[in-house]
Amino acid sequence: MRAVVCRSYGPPENLVLDDVPEPVPAPGQILVRVHTAAVNFPDVLFIEGKYQIKIPPPFIPGNEIAGEVIAAGEGAAISPGQRVAGTTFGAFAEQALLDASQAMLIPDDADFASAAAFGVTYRTAYYALRSTAAVAEGDWVVVLGAAGGVGLAAVDLAVAMKARVLAAASSPEKLELCRRRGAEATVDYDREDLKTRIRELTGDSARVVLDPVGGQYSEPALRGLARGGMFVTLGYAAGTIPTIPLNLVLLKDLYVRGMEIRTFASDYPDEAVRDDAELARLFAGGTVRPYIGARFPLSETAAALRHVAERKVLGKVVIDVA
Ligand SMILES: NC(=O)c1ccc[n+]([C@@H]2O[C@H](COP(=O)([O-])OP(=O)(O)OC[C@H]3O[C@@H](n4cnc5c(N)ncnc54)[C@H](OP(=O)(O)O)[C@@H]3O)[C@@H](O)[C@H]2O)c1
């Protein structure tokens, strides 16, 4: 089968499209003919050897797929022919393995691209909104990087939870997309004073900040929170991990929390089961569907990753494999 291979750590342009052996499902696994793979920011870090987890090259990058089951390992409760989506390793390939117990059956009215693009970003955003920050109807939620993958998922889900969304991003085009998805207020944080605008636009009542960006944006966003508000750190797409003066937390009795998708289910098993079930209902009912901002063929995976690395993402970037 054809697969994108990272032979040594480096930029997207070092990736090669190669012929590799087809994977064989172990017990409990299914083999999927990949129709669509979705790109996530960490894919760029993985191939550069800069992610928290390091996969020794050579490896096939990519973590999210949707496709059709073509073989099932012993004991896998999903049969060939079914349409599934899920997270795995080796997504940027014509075939990939999934743990059957982790696979989501794709509802009839959802296409492969929506299903592939749903998993990582919507779970990240929902765990953070629902369980970490316990967002309630009417709460003001400030989302940084709001037109990106995690950001736009957070906008969609906060709107579905009837929260009030202030979307912060770096261009008029990105903010327009956030407004179309239901954000009530927007701030261009490269041209406006983020702290001041959060306070003005929310009437000094921002209860939650969701931050997948880090860098220079975190501190002003935290300063914009209302007394007793919560700052949730999710990632550092800006490339730097900010340092926050603790007196800011003390003076306004703030909460600062993190949420990590890889450890959430083991740290909070009951919440993870509940949140996954609620998310699946939101997806199946069509209440939330990811916005696909760009599509690339498998042969142009490097360009897809470059698109993400250069801050051009609107919603999700996907790779059309078949
Ligand atoms: N905690 C978790 O479990 C978890 C799960 C998934 C992802 N993450 C992390 O969340 C972050 C966002 O992931 P994503 O998939 O949503 O990424 P994405 O789609 O690329 O969005 C990232 C956003 O960050 C902003 N940004 C600011 N400076 C940037 C820069 N120098 N390069 C690229 N983007 C920049 C961009 O918005 P503006 O241009 O509007 O600033 C962009 O839309 C990543 O750090 C990722 O590792 C964490």
UniProtKB/TrEMBL annotation:
Signal peptide: none annotated. InterPro entries: ADH-like_C (IPR013149), ADH-like_N (IPR013154), ER (IPR020843), GroES-like_sf (IPR011032), NAD(P)-bd_dom_sf (IPR036291), Zn-ADH-like_protein (IPR051397). CDD domains: QOR1. Coiled coil: none annotated. Residues 10-319 form the Enoyl reductase (ER) domain. GO terms for molecular function: oxidoreductase activity. It comes from the Bacteria. This is NADPH:quinone reductase or related Zn-dependent oxidoreductase. It comes from Mycobacterium numidiamassiliense.
